Amino acid sequence: MEKVRAVVKEIAYAENHAKLSPLKRSVIIPFLSFASSLYTLALSLRHSLYRFGLLRNHRLAVPVISVGNLTWGGNGKTPMVEFIARFLADSGIPPLILTRGYAGGDEARMLERHLFGRPAKIGVGANRAAVAASYFERYGYFDPRSSTSNQSLCLDQKVESHLKLEKIGAVVLDDGMQIALELAA
Fold first, then answer.
1. Span 108-141, pLDDT tens digits
2. What is the spatial distance between Cα 174 and Cα 81, in angstroms, rounded to a whole number?
3. DSSP string, 125-162
4. How far is CA 92 from CA 21, 47, 88, 95, in A?
5. pLDDT tens-place string over residues 63-111
6. 76 and 138 in one domain?
7. Which of 59, 139, 160, 176 is the S-S candidate for 66 at Cβ 3.0 to 4.6 Å?
8. Interatomic CA distance for residues 161 and 156, integer angstroms
9. Is 56 contained in some domain?
10. Residue 7 and residue 161: Cα distance in Å, rounded?
11. Is the pTM of this model over 0.90?
C-alpha cells in the first residue's frame, strides 16, 4: 500500500508528466483518470437518486461533526476526533464517537483509554447509522442547541447534570467521508 501511495503522490505532484516513467505515463495515469471518471459518475448518480427522492437524507436529533478526507490513513483524523470529543465532553456535551473499527478496533481502544473518565461513548461498527440508532435508544439524547436542554425544570442541578452525562449531545464521525459512501449504498 505504501508503494501505491508513493506512486500516486509522485504523479500528483509531478510538475511535468513527460518526465515520469513510461509505465506511469502509459498505464497508471490513464487508470487513475478512468477511476476518477467512475467516481464522478457514481457521485452524479448518487446526487440524482437524492434529488428524485429514491434515497432519503436522515437527520440526527443532535449536532454531527464529521472528521474525514479522501486520503489514506495517517493524516491525524482519529487524534482530531479525540480532541473534538474531549472538548465537547469538557464543555458538558457528551459525545458519541462513531468509528468503523479498523485494524481490529485499535483506534476505538485508544480512544477509550484517552477519554477514560469523560462522558464519551464510542460506537464501533461498519454500519455506523445503525450503531448510532442503538446508542440513541440505549442512552437517549438531547440537543444542546435547544433552550429547553439548558434550563432546569424541576430537577436538582446535580441530578440533571448526571442525567445529561448519560444522554448523547453530539456525534463525532471518525473518517466521515467513509460514512457518506456507506449511507449512499
1. 888 899 999 898 999 988 888 888 889 999 999 9
2. 6
3. -S-HHHHHHHHHHHH-B--TTSTGGGS--SS-HHHHHH
4. 56, 36, 6, 9
5. 999 888 766 666 788 889 999 999 999 888 999 999 887 656 688 888 8
6. yes
7. 176
8. 9
9. no
10. 52
11. no
